[in-house]
């Protein structure tokens, strides 16, 4: 078989081309059938093949997200860091540990895709800026994919908007001038959305300056997450 392929030359015969195009049609027919059977799996496969900003991604495309149609809670964060890029597991870092502590979820519950969907604003590691910080999520990503993914997650009741990029995208003009103001107005965004600060190490100082966050927002967040993940 290898010999036949090697001996065929670049152009190939008309019969071979016809055969190839028929088998392409069969393969793409299978893909269409699979996508029709499970549209979310089909879309996730499309996302994983995305190369839209390949030219500017320093480590290349590696979309990191998780979703299943049964999920009730959606977490929209920023973009993977280098560690998450390498493991392919979202929030698999100290920020994730802090977020799980706020939610009062262990790793098993947090990574249970039947209950929790994790869809960041940018699916691939975007690189670093001149001062060594992570660049913002790629702007191409959310407009390309979020509405299509969200349409296939019909059971989501609450979306956690983690950080200013997610808040700006999902709340639009309803986002306030600062992160503290937006998170402070959390009651007004329920029941659909709940804004949170990004739980990076820098947030420790923010939490100290805004003690109402741990006193009021975190208990309400835990109660809502617990209700969503424990009721049918
Ligand atoms: S960041 Fe998003 S749009 Fe860009 S290559 Fe990755 S999946 Fe595609």
How would you portray this structure in words?
The chain is of the alpha/beta class and 232 residues long. It contains eleven helices and four strands. Strands 2-1-3-4 form a four-stranded parallel beta sheet. It has helices at 2-7, 14-37, 39-48, 82-87, 94-103, 107-110, 141-151, 164-171, 179-184, 203-209, 212-230; strands at residues 73-76, 116-118, 158-162, 193-196. Helix 2 (14-37) crosses helix 3. The chain has one domain: Uracil-DNA glycosylase-like domain (Uracil-DNA Glycosylase, subunit E, 3-Layer(aba) Sandwich). The protein is globular, with a radius of gyration of 21 Å. The structure holds iron/sulfur cluster. Residues 47, 50-54, 61, 63, 122-124, 138, 140-141, 144 line the site of iron/sulfur cluster.
Short description:
The protein has 232 residues and is α/β, with parallel strands linked by helices.
